[in-house]
Amino acid sequence: MITRNKGAEDVMPGESYIWQRVEQMAADIAGLYGFREIRFPTFEKTELFVRSVGETTDVVQKEMWTVKGRESSYTLRPEGTAGCMRAVLQNGLLNESLPQKLWYQISAFRHENVQKGRLWEFHQFGAEMVGAAAPSADAEVIAFARVLLDSLGLDDAKLHINSIGCPECRQAYYDKLREYFEPNKDKLCATCQSRLDKNPMRILDCKSAEDKAIAKDAPMITDYLCDECRAHFDELKALLDGMGIAYEVDQKIVRGLDYYTRTVFEFISDSIGAQSTILGGGRYDKLLGQMGGPETPALGFAMGMERVILAMKAAGFDFGEPSTCDLYIASMGDAEGHKAAILADALRKDGFRVETELCGRGFKAQMKYANKIRAKYLLVIGGSELETGKANIKNMKTGEQIPVDLEKDLAQAFMDTYVADRIDIECGDAE
Ligand code: HAM
Question: What's the CA-to-centroid distance between 240 and ligand 1, angstroms?
């Protein structure tokens, strides 16, 4: 048997309803904030990611899945922002009224060391807002992420924010960083040695334990922010305070992707082990310009679906029951099976989830199966039911039997039964 690759996961039917629920909640909340869905390809030209994510990042240097095609080099998207912005530019979305607010649900691919919550193929729910420069846009995007996580039962996920400034305020900072790392240059990993000249801030984000130790007391960007970047960050913090959104300013957040400017943020969950960042994002005001479009402010976030579902399970989130069968029609004999198939077909066309016997099971095994699929009602078609056209629909929970006429409008009878039971259940709940 050929087995699944490491770093990839199957989502089986017993689990897929959980994904559907999370995806639906995310889409609903996105709608509340005025975001519309966008879909874009799984692969792009490699150059897109090199230019946007950045050639000195771990993602580009070590983690991309790249295929050399006949005409070009292609890469499976390691994240969504680059492809989303490419689509925005290519399809002229900037000509429409701004801001454009977009969300996506995607698979993404990174060749990382596989561990719990870190996969080669993973999934993101992402949101991007294009055309808004004000700190209130940052606050709105962060509030959206907060509400989303809260509604997924992850209100204990902590928000960490930082500002990593703009290219202007970074010049002085880069000089300070180079000064700081220079005495230990030889002890840094080979990748970081090459980063020292080009992009010393990336060293702060290196996964190597030795480099992390060397970077421990490195100067912080927040001390080098220009007046505009500082004012932007101060206003964002004041807005978050006003919205009652708790945060911690975490100067260690630099993010692993090069396109960020000013605000960066992450939501951290303590319940899922080392890969604890369940959502990350920030502002990227220079990216569209770098990609050949007009310079346009933008920002967004992406939530890791696998990590969020792990955290929801750890928090004991009630996913409810997967949708079950409304009615199971058991039958004995060929003529009865024939009738059951026709009744099932008619009831499905009326919107009921109906199952009937397809595997030649005996009566006892059919009863077992009806219980297993958690059928809410049972209809048995035997010889006498077939002959008289009279049968009973049994409520599997209460055992109550409701007489029905198979030749009249079974769907209506079933609907009446179903609705009557619903009302009972709802009244019962209210008590
Ligand atoms: P990111 O922080 O690289 O940001 O990824 C976002 C989230 O995806 C992470 O917080 C994590 O939950 C999940 N994730 C990342 N890598 C893996 C992996 N190998 N296995 C499982 N989950 C993973 C971005 O991707 C940016 N595009 C976010 C953004 C949107 N910034 C602005 N707009």
Answer: 23
The span from the CA of 337 to the CA of 382, in Å, is 9
Summarised one tens digit per residue, pLDDT across range 28-86 is 999 999 999 999 999 999 999 999 999 989 999 999 999 998 889 999 999 999 999 99
- The CATH number that applies at residue 413 is 3.40.50.800
Instruction: Look at residues 314, 337, 363 and tell me which one is the last residue of a structural domain.
Output: 314
Taking 90 as the threshold, does the pLDDT of residue 413 lie above it?
A: no
Taking the centre of ligand 1 as the mean of its atom positions, its distance from the CA of residue 82, in whole angstroms, is 12
Alpha-carbon distance of 345 to 357, in angstroms, equals: 13
Nearest residue by C-alpha to atom 13 in ligand 1: 304
Count CA atoms within 13 Å of residue 46 on its CB side: 16
On whether both 298 and 339 belong to a single domain, the answer is: no
Ligand 1 atom showing the smallest separation from residue 110 Cα: 19
The residue range of the domain holding 304 is: 13-166+226-314
Compute the distance from residue 152 Cα to the ligand 1 centre, in Å. Answer: 18
CA of 253 relative to ligand 1 center, distance in Å: 14
* Protein residue closest via CA to atom 14 of ligand 1: 304
Closest ligand 1 atom, residue 255 Cα: 2
Which whole number is the average pLDDT over 333-352? 94
In this prediction, residue 431 has a pLDDT band, given cuts at 50, 70 and 90, of: very low
